[in-house]
Hints:
By secondary structure, this protein is mainly alpha-helical. It has one domain. The protein is built from ten helices and two strands; from the N terminus they run ααααααααββαα. Strands 1-2 form a two-stranded antiparallel ribbon. β1 and β2 form a beta hairpin. It is elongated. The relative contact order is 0.18.
Amino acid sequence: MGNELEKSLEKLHSLLDRHRTVGAALYDDCEGHLFPCDGLAMAALDRSLNHVEGFLLLMRNHGYICSAALLRIQLDCILRLYGVMHSDDPHGVAAAVLQGERLDQFKDRHGKQMRDSHLLELLEPKNPGITRIYRWASGYVHFSREHVSHFLARSVPGKDGRRVFQIGNNDDHIPLEHRRELADGFATVTRGVLGVIEKWTAGRRNVASREELHRRFSAPI
């Protein structure tokens, strides 16, 4: 593994401790009373932490294809939590999501359906390139041309003009620079997840008072 790639992975690894710091800050602000959007934020934090651990394990064991799919899944943490926070009723929408409702069935504070395309439009101005990352990484979640391209990249020309095809579980055919870019991209998205949760922590008390939340919800989650 190249030194530059390892440096990128070490920077990502350093974000593991920040997950714990961000989680502690939210828990302290809640004083142990987690209401729906708080719980959703904590779940996103837990999910992100596990994604980072998995990504590091995969990238250090030649798992580029699976790692790219994880990038798209990590980005999903931002989209979902950002959407809930930008609704008229974050706790109410979060409660519905926790009961299994789809976020895209709800509207944001401007009356727009919260589909991924709309959430990306909201995020793009302050996060240039997020839509491009979403579309690229989605190609690794769905069975698409990216997977065919990786399969073909492992083939070699045969002596009789025919290609010798092979399948494999490594990423040796992928340039080191591409692997480093993936690691850096994953770190950027992970910082985005942490930033969204920090933003919720900073503004959660402006959404509703604890008394109001206790009236609306029989008990914290």
